[in-house]
């Protein structure tokens, strides 16, 4: 995060830094760093190899970053805020949190499954059946208590893991390949 923070800073020159194995730039002025980078560019253009060995071009330990970055993550915004605890990245960027409702997620998973079906061991009907079974378990709110002990239900498992493409594929394997008569409960609890 520190290197990204420096590259995305809104004040002054933005530098990317990485020292191990590179030519040290500590204590050099911006002009000296830029001159070294120009030399490296020419040597690479002339065909020299990059590396720490004799006759190879050593990259600088820092360089001015003049570009832009696009970050794409499947991490929920709340979780990202924990990782970016000081807000170093979020405060230096524009971000859009795209959130799908559960019905949209189910529809998307089915679409992916249907696209896989023609060349796989399962059919589109199998996809619909297993995704519906997984989704049905996630909506379950029953609490199982025996002898004063509360047990995890299929609904508990699905709410923790969610309905995913991986869960769909595991459920399809249980149903179609393994031909498990109890595939539905196994998938709901363990996929």
Structure, described:
With 191 residues, the protein is mainly α. The protein has helices at residues 2-8, 30-45, 77-83, 102-116, 124-139, 154-161, 165-177, 183-190; strands at residues 15-17, 62-64, 144-146, 149-151. Helix 4 (102-116) packs antiparallel against helix 5 (124-139). The longest helix has 16 residues, at 30-45. It is elongated and about 70 Å long.
What's this, in brief?
By secondary structure, this protein is mainly alpha-helical. The protein is about 45% helix and about 5% strand. Strands 1-2 form a two-stranded antiparallel ribbon. It has a two-stranded antiparallel ribbon with strand order 3-4.
Number of helices: 8
Structural class estimated from helices and strands: mainly alpha
Please tally the β strands and state the result. Answer: 4
Number of domains: 2
Radius of gyration: 26 Å
Average predicted confidence as pLDDT:
83
N/C terminus separation:
34 Å
Q: Largest beta sheet, briefly?
A: 2 strands, antiparallel
Query: How do the strands of the widest beta sheet line up side by side?
Result: 1-2
Shape, principal axes of CA atoms: elongated
Portion in beta strands = 5-15%
Residue share in helices?
40-55%
Q: Flag low-confidence runs.
A: none
- Helices and strands, in order, run as HEHEHHHEEHHH
Which features characterize this protein?
mainly alpha, two-stranded antiparallel sheet, 191 residues, single chain, two-stranded antiparallel ribbon
């Amino acid at each position: 995060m520190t290197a990204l923070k420096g590259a995305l800073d809104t004040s002054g020159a933005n530098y990317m830094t990485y020292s191990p194995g590179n030519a040290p730039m500590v204590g050099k002025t911006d002009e000296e760093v830029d001159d070294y980078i120009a030399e490296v560019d020419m040597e690479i253009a002339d065909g020299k190899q990059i590396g720490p060995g004799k006759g190879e071009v050593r990259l600088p330990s820092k360089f001015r970053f003049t570009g832009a970055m696009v970050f794409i993550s499947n991490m929920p915004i709340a979780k990202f805020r924990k990782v970016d605890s000081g807000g170093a990245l979020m405060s230096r960027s524009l971000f859009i949190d795209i959130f799908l409702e559960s019905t949209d997620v189910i529809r998307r998973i089915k679409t992916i499954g249907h696209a896989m079906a023609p060349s796989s061991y399962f059919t589109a009907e199998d996809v619909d059946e297993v995704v519906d079974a997984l989704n049905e378990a996630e909506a379950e709110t029953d609490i199982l208590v025996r002898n004063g002990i509360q047990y995890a239900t299929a609904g508990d498992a699905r709410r923790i893991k969610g309905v995913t493409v991986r869960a769909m594929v595991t459920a399809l394997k249980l149903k179609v390949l393994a031909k498990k008569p109890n595939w539905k409960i196994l998938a709901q609890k363990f996929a």
